Amino acid sequence: MNEKTIDKIRNAGGRMVIGTPDDQSNVTTLMPLGNILYAVKEKGIYAIKLADDIDPARTNPAIPHVQQRIVALGSDSPLVGQTLLTAKELFSDKILPNWFDCTQAILCSLEALKDLAAVCELKDSFTNAETKEIAGLDSQSASKGSLILPAIGDVDARCKTFFQKADHASRSLLDIVKLFYKKLHGIRGMADLIQYAKKQYGEGDSLVMYLESIAPTLRYVRDTRNCLEHPNPPAMQANISDFSLRPDGIIARPSIEVIAGREHYPAADISAVMTELSQTLPQIFEGALAYARRTSSQ
Length: 298
What we know:
By secondary structure, the chain is α+β, with helices and mostly antiparallel strands. It has two domains: 1-74, no CATH class; 77-140 and 147-296. Helices cover 49% and strands 16% of the residues. It is built from eight helices and nine strands. It has a four-stranded antiparallel beta sheet with strand order 1-2-3-4. A hairpin with a 2-residue loop joins β1 (27-33) and β2. The radius of gyration is 24 Å and the shape is globular.
């Protein structure tokens, strides 16, 4: 039987140069997950789909293989190491039982990486905008007897996006933990998870103590997101301020205060909050992966 032209094209060997023109770094890891091959380079992560994955019926010979950069960070980035590469090492079907979905766990880690990368970008964008306004403060002139205060302008929107991404990363972590413990599908958040772990392993277990240590940070992220997206004053609200003049004459940086029911988080500089969370959340993610993996094997 004569081979069709499209079959000749699809069955033929070939080669592909992975990377965008601005990323000529080396490929350090390849990860097949589902019907997508992920290539981790030193400076970026790429999703690769073959023509047969796009057109499995082989109806269009013009369909090419495709690649797309999904994260502009690669193996050189500590963030990639704390999330995706840590997951790749911990979640191997060679060492975990066959009922555990290693592919889904790594995909959850990839989603968390995307969200945490966005968190870092949003933090950088905010702090850069703040620094620019502060630098121009000395050149601000009074207008008809009043002081012209600096302003970032879209502080509310920036905060909402930041905390959405931060909370998405937290949810990805919980989704991974649920893969280890099948009984956790009804668990809604960290408080429920801690109670479950206490019943399973006892108050003094290392996993319980770790979860209790990270819970306040994750609760702050969740409470702040809820207050930003679903305000219900006075019980649920986030009070956000751009640059402001204090009674003592000091110009205060943009700040956020959160009231979430019985929880009250005092006003804090937004740039400081974003900086701390962009550093702490990846550490929490990496540590929780290791604890969940270790505890599941006990």
